[in-house]
Amino acid sequence: MPATVVVGTQWGDEGKGKLTDLLAKEMQFVVRYQGGHNAGHTIVVGGETFALQLVPSGILYPHITPVIGNGVVVDPGVLISELDSLSGRGVDVSRLILSGSAHLIMPYHHELDRVTERFLGKNSLGTTRRGIGPAYADKASRVGLRVQDLLDEKIFRQKLEVALKEKNAVLAKVYNRLPLDADEIAELYLGQYAPRLAPLVGDAVSLLHDALGRGGSVLLEGAQATFLDLDHGTYPFVTSSNPIAGGACTGAGIGPRHIDKVIGVAKAYVTRVGAGPFPTECDKEIADVLVERGHEFGTNTGRRRRCGWFDAVMLRQAVRINSLSEVALTKLDVLDTFSNVKVCVAYEADGARFDHIPYHQSVLHRVRPVYEELQGWQVDLAGATTLADLPAPARDYVAFLSEQIGCAVRMVGVGPGRDQFVHFAA
């Protein structure tokens, strides 16, 4: 059976975890293919809320084998803490497979992330300061340590010594920070983390290909989203990996011919955290309503999210870049109280109209949204279970979005619960 990819289509926080959790009931493997613990998934099951960072959403199903792929950067302390938390709530975490080729986030990555952001001042990128970017930088520079290195003390210490020689020089001479001690780091990683994680480490690539070869079902779960992609996002206000559907291939070790469906997840409005362009950002009065009704605060950081109207220009680009098969629209219920809702159908700048995102960042920063206004529904959607339960204006809104982005919306979220989705006919 071919694989399915779930990808965010905006600036993250679209509800990918909830959709992945819903789809996982039909799957055997759920794979996280990139990112680190800077991404948070919130899932509500039976009235209980689970906030996941590194562990794939499928962990909540006993029949699923969750996999952390080679494209992820892993903070061992955070992963162990998350596993302990889940285990304490009765979740079996022994099924997790951790790719031996995933890279480790080290203490100097945290330190460099913090001091670099402070050094940039008003030009900071708004990172979560959790070492994600520096870890990916080391991976690209070929000086990173990988999960498999935890299983070989000699190799781990050799690599750590090489890395620390450079990192300590930078921390001391550029940022006036005290050097980090190699023995202390080795004791933490080899003495405490390695014994806990060793039983979970495996060959994720062979595992997944064996599963696909015998007809198994695989769900590939991205973190962050299309416009935080290192290559295709609003650079430099992006993450340090490739959340787009193509990143699933490199981050999990699966070729594109194994993928037959790509589901894009989009909010019924748009949010982003931190700095960067945001053409449809709302004024404070409307944003306050969206923040309050949508609980728009970061799962990991607690930071208030910036909010804006739905941007069809973004979604058209996401449809192209990810080859989306369909879209799952989340949080439609957050718009319940508005008498009218807006959709951005184009941008204008310098006398030109843009139906797709302009390639030049300077143009993107000064575009003005072209809106179409639709009638609101002002009906509580939380109890809707079928298409007929949605009021006509809500159905019209979804149909308008499908038409604008050139891709069918097949599922609509009407609440935070695991099953609070309404299905549209194929």
List keywords for this structure.
globular; alpha/beta; 10-stranded mixed sheet; 21% strand
Task: Describe it.
By secondary structure, the protein is α/β, with parallel strands linked by helices. Helices cover 33% and strands 21% of the residues. Helix 3 packs across helix 4. It contains 12 helices and 20 strands.
Per-chain topology:
Blueprint: E1 3-8, H1 16-24, E2 29-32, E3 41-45, E4 48-52, E5 65-68, E6 73-74, H2 76-88, E7 97-99, E8 103-104, H3 107-120, H4 132-141, H5 153-173, H6 182-197, E9 201-202, H7 204-213, E10 218-221, H8 245-252, E11 259-267, E12 270-272, H9 284-294, E13 306-308, E14 310-311, H10 312-322, E15 326-330, E16 340-349, E17 352-354, H11 361-364, E18 368-375, H12 392-405, E19 409-413, E20 421-423
Parallel strand pairs: 1-10, 1-11, 2-5, 2-10, 5-7, 6-8, 7-9, 11-15, 14-16, 15-19
Antiparallel strand pairs: 3-4, 12-13, 16-17, 16-18, 19-20
What proportion of the residues is helical, as a percent range? Answer: 25-40%
Q: Helical element count?
A: 12
* Beta-strand share of residues: 15-25%
As a whole number of angstroms, the C-alpha radius of gyration is 22 Å
Poorly predicted residue ranges: none
Mean pLDDT: 92
Shape: globular
- Note the main sheet: 10 strands, mixed
Straight-line distance between termini? 20 Å
> Would you count the extended β strands for me?
20
Helix and strand composition category: alpha/beta
Major beta sheet, strand line-up? 9-7-5-2-10-1-11-15-19-20
